[in-house]
Amino acid sequence: MKCLRCGACCRHFIVEATIGDVRREPRIDRECQILDGHGTILRQQASWSIACGKTSPCPFLRSDNRCDIHKTKPRECRQFRPGEALCAEARQAERARKVLLAGKGKA
Prior knowledge:
Blueprint: H1 9-12, E1 15-17, H2 19-24, H3 27-31, E2 33-35, E3 47-50, H4 75-79, H5 85-103
Antiparallel strand pairs: 1-3, 2-3
């Protein structure tokens, strides 16, 4: 299945980026939360949380639902496949979000 560019996957999942991802795309280090056990884990062994969810989409999701770091996006994002179960889950969550916003007059 081809990606519909709905942006649902970038609004409803938390992506964990590795040090390799950060080396490939330095903006992850600047714009995302490092998960280093509050300094108890070496930076080379840490991961970064690209928080997507109810309150905010991925910080790299543009207004046209395209990825601002597409060529250098994290491995976890590269492995995501349109049309598979996680995609369907994200789309369902996105539909629910839109219904909720419509009920609040924000859609």
